Amino acid sequence: MDLAYLAAGIGAGLVVIGAGIGIGRLAASAMEATGRQPEATGDIRTSMIIAAALIEGAALFGLVICILLAIKS
Amino acid sequence: MNISYSSLKSIFILFFTFTIISFIAFPNNSFAGGSGEDEGKVDIVDKVVDHDYVDFYFLGKLKLPKFEPVTIAGITFDFSITKSLFMMMLVSVLLVFVLYVAASSNKKNLVPKGIGNFIETIVVFVRDEIVIPNMGKDGVKMLPFFLTLFFFILFANLFGLIPFMAQPTKNINVTAALALIVFFVTQAKGIQANGFFGYCKGLVPHGIPTFVLPIMIVVEFIGLFTKPFSLLMRLFANITAGSIIILSLISLIFIMSYAGIVIAVPFALFIYLLEIFVSVLQAYIFTMLATLYINMAVHQDH
Questions:
Q1: Which of A23, B60, B99, B236 is the most exposed place for a label (fewest CB within 10 A)?
Q2: How far is CA B251 from the centre of its chain?
Q3: Is the dihedral of CA B169, B173, B175, B178 positive or negative?
């Protein structure tokens, strides 16, 4: 029973690590691209937000499972 | 310009102070969970799930009407009005009222001003930044649909930030209904543009070897349903997470007594401001991905 709480906590941490690395790399590349081509800033920002939303969606699936674990136990 | 900005600021300050006070000043009523045995216990699930009453905390509870379950073709439907449904009705009424006022004021004034100007800015944003870049000029014909999606999600998300109110999008059924609408519109537009058999054939990318075809058909068929599923989960999880975080931060006061206020209130205020940003962002992303998916169904070549 208590292990479910532990699993939920560790799982949430891992999910945030993954999402953080993903969005961090995305933002780094987007800023580099903006630096190279400042005139394409708008397009880069739009596609960056879409990609960040997709990464966030994957992270939220994991978090929902963590919440389910914590509630069910 | 200056005057409207400062009045907006004062409204915001008043609004936040009221929220914080309503959370802090009446902790026992707000978090007692209703029944006597759970006195002083914070139940996160209780704050997230649907109820058949609207809790006005220290002002009492508003009981919503209950109807007898109806059985149609062996399936029982319960048409009772719940909190989410009640909030959705309020949002819809507010939406119709605000947009009607904006539209009629724009019809009256040759140069848009006031609320008409504000709403027009958002409409032009949706057209020029979301629909045209993703769908081209053809997408403008579907602009009313995307505007409806955008304004409903935006108003629903922001509505929950008003004290005593709740986001309808905090209920997974509401977001599921929105995603289902997008799913059916996607299929309909795809079939309309390519014909039924053309659409089914276009789902699988052509030019791939024959032996991977069985796998690809299954993968693409599942992919048809994961798109709306991720739409509904993203909106639901973002809004619910915001509520849970604010509640958890406020709960610090119960754990750490007076010292908790110093930590909890500024952090909760920060998350609250973040929630405004998230509300707009989620409405933007939902509409943006809906246009992307519909465009992918219409132009299947790439």
A1: B60
A2: 25
A3: negative
- Are the CB atoms for A36 and B209 separated by under 8 Å? no
d(CA A29, CA A22): 11
Q: For residue range A9-34, what is the model confidence (pLDDT) as tens digits?
A: 999 999 999 999 999 999 999 999 99
pLDDT of residue B18 exceeding 50:
no
The CA-atom distances, in angstroms, between B226 and each of B178, B210, B221 are 14, 25, 9
Contact A60 B133 (CB under 8 A): no
B151: which strand partners?
none
| Cβ-based contacts of B288 with chain A (< 8 Å) | 49-50, 53
CB atoms within 10 A of CB B214: 9
Among the listed residues A56, A52, A54, A59, the one whose alpha carbon sits nearest the alpha carbon of residue A11:
A59
Q: What is the C-alpha to C-alpha distance for residues B193 and B141, in angstroms, rounded to an integer? A: 14
* Euclidean distance between CA atoms B169 and B138, whole angstroms: 30
Interface test with B, best of A50, A63, A68, A71 (most B CBs within 10 A): A50
pLDDT digits (tens, 9 = 90+) for B258-281: 888 888 888 889 989 989 988 998
pTM score, whole prediction: 0.78
Length of chain B: 302
Beta carbons of B164 and B269 less than 8 angstroms apart = no
**Residues B73, B144: Cα–Cα separation, whole Å:** 35
Which residues fall within 8 angstroms of residue B189, CB to CB, at 6 or more apart?
A: B142, B294, B297, B298
pLDDT tens-place string over residues B164-213: 888 888 888 889 999 999 999 999 999 998 888 888 888 887 777 888 88
B65 DSSP 8-state letter: P
